Amino acid sequence: MGHAAELFGVRQGFLRSLDAAKLLTPQRSAGGHRRYSRYQLRIAARAHELVAAGTPLDAACRIIILEDQLAEARRINTELAQNPDNRSDT
Asked: How far apart are CA 24 and CA 17, in angstroms?
């Protein structure tokens, strides 16, 4: 966690707060240290950006979740547009 915090210039407590807010759920090493994926580090960077701009943490978490859902919906729409035979007509 210390290395991840250093990368973003944030305190370890900020990363813990993202974990407490259930925005991130890092893996744990055998020694109990938090291990973040590259995806989680991108999310942490986005959260830091929003919070540094004055957005409350809970609102920043919601924004990030909505941005992620929108990106996934766009990906699915693009996939369906490229492969119209995969659509379900239900």
From this structure: 9
What is the Cα–Cα distance from 30 to 40, expressed in whole angstroms? 19
Q: Which residues contact 5 (CB under 8 A, 6 or more apart)?
A: 11, 12, 14, 15
The residue among 41, 10, 11, 9 whose CA lies nearest residue 24 is 41
Reading the chain (90 residues) residue by residue, the pLDDT tens digits are: 677 777 767 788 888 899 999 998 888 889 988 888 888 888 999 999 999 999 999 999 999 999 999 999 999 999 999 987 766 655
From residue 63, how far is each of 3, 25, 40, 47, 79 by CA, in Å? Answer: 26, 17, 15, 9, 24
Q: What angle do helix axes 38-52 and 57-82 make, rounded to 10 degrees? A: 130
